[in-house]
Amino acid sequence: MEVTSLSGEDNGVCALIEGADFLKSSGNSKFDKKRVYFDKSSDALKWRGKHREKSIPIGSITEVRQCVLPPHFDCNRGNDCCISIVHGQPVRCTYLVSQSPEIITIWET
């Protein structure tokens, strides 16, 4: 039986497909807990919204960057636990806050 190991890049892709729990900005200065994942079949980041599944097509993402927590978000997590995904036309920004900086590093890459 042949054992194959995943490279760092493959591990990152597997982690994106599996998804991670984030606090996601919902627009009205509040954050909701969401499981965000990469769906290979539709080539999009997805999560379950209030009434239906929502997504950001990968092709519409212009930038993913580590960012400072928005001022209205009150928590004890450091600024290294937040990313913003810049996407769409007109340009929109989605904030995701993680429990750990390691998760952010994977999603930022």
Write up what this structure looks like.
There is one protein chain. With 109 residues, the protein is α+β, with helices and mostly antiparallel strands. It has a single domain, classed as PH-domain like (Roll), CATH 2.30.29.30. The chain contains 2 helices and 7 strands. A 7-stranded antiparallel β-sheet has the order 4-3-2-1-7-6-5. Strand 6 and strand 7 form a beta hairpin. The N terminus is likely disordered.
Helix and strand topology:
Elements: H1 8-18, E1 20-25, E2 31-39, E3 44-48, E4 53-57, E5 61-66, E6 82-87, E7 92-97, H2 101-108
Antiparallel strand pairs: 1-2, 1-7, 2-3, 3-4, 5-6, 6-7
In total, the number of domains comes to 1
Q: Give the strand content.
A: 35-45%
In CATH, the topology is named PH-domain like
Order of helices and strands: HEEEEEEEH
Estimated structural class: alpha+beta
Mean pLDDT: 81
CATH architecture: Roll
What best-fitting shape do the alpha-carbon axes yield?
globular
CATH class: Mainly Beta
Count all strands and give the number.
7
- How helical, in percent, are the residues? 10-25%
Radius of gyration: 15 Å
Q: What's the name of the CATH homologous superfamily?
A: Pleckstrin-homology domain (PH domain)/Phosphotyrosine-binding domain (PTB)
Poorly predicted parts: 1-8
> How is the largest sheet built, in terms of strand order?
4-3-2-1-7-6-5
Oligomer: single chain
Throw out a few tags for this protein:
109 residues, 7-stranded antiparallel β-sheet, 2 helices, disordered N terminus, PH-like_dom_sf, PH domain-containing protein
